[in-house]
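Self-study notes.
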Amino acid sequence: MRFGSHISIREGYLGAAQHAQKIGARAFQYFPKNPRSLSVKEYNIHDAQECAKFCIEHHIQTIAHTPYPTNLVADEGQIELVKDSLLNDLEIANECGSIGVVVHFGVLKNATDPLEGYQRMIGTFNDVLSKWDGEALLLLENNAGKSGPTGTMLEELVQVRQLTEFPEKIGFCLDTCHVFASGVWDGDNWAEVEAKGTELGYFEHLKAVHLNNSAYPTRSMKDRHANIPYGEIKIDQIKELLSSSVFGDIPFVLETPHENHFSHEDEIKFLNEMMGIYS
């Protein structure tokens, strides 16, 4: 199994990969640029390519994550910035050899037509992916439900992908905190979630997992991550999920708090020991 964490690029893309290897990660996630801006970054292509080379040599898989302001259903005043930023993220991820770029399912608040948000999101995907011919995918992430139920159900993610003009350029990223907080997975019904996801074809296109515990109970609709041993999801429930055959060799990336008393290195070691993986 491939456990890793989110890693800063303050030392560059190659530096992030080297740090991942240092802490025992077999995967990592990174922001390709400033996470608080939609600006297009003129990145160091040599650094990105060295990152890709290093990851191949050390059998490390990577995913990127869009900046926080990225909104697939943004209004006309900002959507062009979002589209340009997404293309920039895809270019950087591609040069880094990453599987793809994670983007949150869009939620249009206060819409008079409940379908408008879906239509905007599909239009954004179509416009961006019509200009993209690299190997990196856009990875659509499920929501926790803090802004309403939109984007929490596996059926929605599968349907949005199918309705785009370029479904082959879209994959999925499952966030375990989000799927628990939304109540889709309540900790005890993994077999049901697995069966539904398999029937829908969701797991067929799942490319990464954000492996997070939840600070709040299931159906809380609150997106607050917790460390794997210390959240509301029980260890045996997490272990049941991790033991599922639907995941194959995809990366499990921590987006959990990391402090001196329990670093991501400690958490990766904990996960490896829990799953009986020893180097």
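Second protein, same conventions, sequence then structure:
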Amino acid sequence: MAASNRAHHFLEGKTIFVAGSGVAGAAFVAGLYKLWNPEWKAPTIVVFDRDPAEEGLRRESENYSLSVSGHTEAGGLVALKKLGLIDQVLSSSVSGVDGSGCFKIWGPDWSEKIRAARPPLHGLPTASVRITRKNLRRVLGNATEGWQHSSVEWDSQCLSVARLDSGRLSVRIRQKRGETTHTFTRECDLLVAADGASSKLRACLRPADGLNYTGATLRGGLSELKGGIPEPIRKDWGFVVSGSGVVGFISPVDDHTVIWAVGTQEPGPLPELDRTSKQDVEAVISRGGQLGSQFEEPFQTIVSQTDPQTVMCISARDKLPFRHDQGAIKDLPVVFIGDSNHALSPFAGFGANLALSDAWDLAEQLCLRGSLPEAVAGYDELSEPRARKVAESARRSLRAGLSTGWRYWLFSFMLWIGSWVRWGMETFKGR
């Protein structure tokens, strides 16, 4: 008998902690809410987020737009359709709806090298959209507002976890209330770690499984263009390749705002940007303009209009996924999803998709399986190979985009071949 039809469930009446209310954490709660059999006694779900209420949605990084795809089973639109949230996401998207834009790769003169016109899966109306992170999080958060069994504790961060003699988990939490910060422990039966690439919980339980520097640095920010976003980037988004070891990225955020970035190889990670230093911020913008000088207009105009409060300088890091130790999951029921398990560099542009897929799959496996070890094993079978494939592909694409010399020309040739294959398929399909 399927677990979803059982008279009882192994998580009935239990307490589940979720570390992080980002895309992965919020989607997991939304998935569990949708899938939970109302005949079972619901668990108590507490989400801990390190930011104060609403402040997380005001952070500049939350204003950046991200891609959510529907042309692959690993895409976030596929998971959002299962969650029943596809209409809300489409109505909140920046571009990609009703054929209004797609991912492209341009040359330095903005000549189109390739256009990703792939068909969507499962009857989805589009293959890809751009949506701001804050809008995606709001859609996910709104989906669980009516569930009385879940709550969020803001300004609270999970620092570490240990097993108690009772079999439950003791989670150490740092919480800020007003001007006072204190640390305490609370108990739960299952901990879902969705606390991002720099996961405190992964550092606690898997100290050797850290992030790896990819050899590239990303500089960029948000720019407001009062006259509106010009072609060819008014609705489209993607990379600008140069063949000189510099790659650019451009994407609309709204009708007047774009996110821009330039990536280049660096011998080692750069110091973290001091956002309080006007000199350091201006240096990042200036260096970004210098690196992107080979890109024709409107790139330089966009850089010149950068809002200093949004400037970023990121030494790109990633890490490959891992499977949970099935022998230990019974004793230490901690499950890692999203970036806490498999972090992608910002060049990959697919992290939110994996987070949404992970969240749905874990929620579904928990509801379908008859025990926690079975559920986690089922989740690993879906998540680990999917994330590994994406991470390894992202590393290859990064090397290609930053290539020079014959490697760049080989990359350009492959793009040219790809564009002709796509043209031929569209022509044949149209007959």
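Instructor comment on the second fold: The first helix runs from residue 23 to 35.
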